[in-house]
Amino acid sequence: MADTFTSFVDTPAAPATRAAAVTPHDTNALADLPKGLYIGGAGNITMRGVNDAADRVWAGVPAGTVLPFRAQYVRATGTSATFILALY
């Protein structure tokens, strides 16, 4: 299968080309910085962005939402959303 976009530069605004499951953890950072997060099951998400100095709570995120947020941490404490995927 030909990929006509292979010569394009990958940026945070470009569509994701892979996804990985996220297991929220209170101290461990994500292994790689994602372009965004897909939320499969509704709830709250406590996370810290790449250039942020504090955690932020995203309240009431609906299932099926794609958050265009470059999270460095997704915390277990305060996170009730489920089936979270990091988009790369």
Task: Give a verbal description of the structure.
This protein has strands at residues 19-21, 36-41, 43-49, 56-61, 65-67, 71-75, 82-87. The chain contains no helices and 7 strands. The chain is globular. The chain is mainly β and 88 residues long. It has one domain (19-87). The model has no long low-confidence stretch (mean pLDDT 95). The strands form 2 sheets. It has a 4-stranded antiparallel sheet, with no helix packed on it.
List the defining traits of the structure above:
0% helix, 88 residues, mainly beta, four-stranded antiparallel beta sheet
Strand content: 35-45%
Strand arrangement, major sheet = 1-7-2-5
Main sheet: strands, sense, barrel: 4 strands, antiparallel
Q: Output the number of helix runs.
A: 0
Tell me the Rg in angstroms.
14 Å
Span between termini: 21 Å
Q: How would you concisely characterize the structure shown here?
A:
Helix content is 0%, strand content 41%.
Q: Which secondary structure elements does this structure contain, and how are they paired or packed?
A:
Layout: E1 19-21, E2 36-41, E3 43-49, E4 56-61, E5 65-67, E6 71-75, E7 82-87
Antiparallel strand pairs: 1-7, 2-5, 2-7, 3-4, 3-6
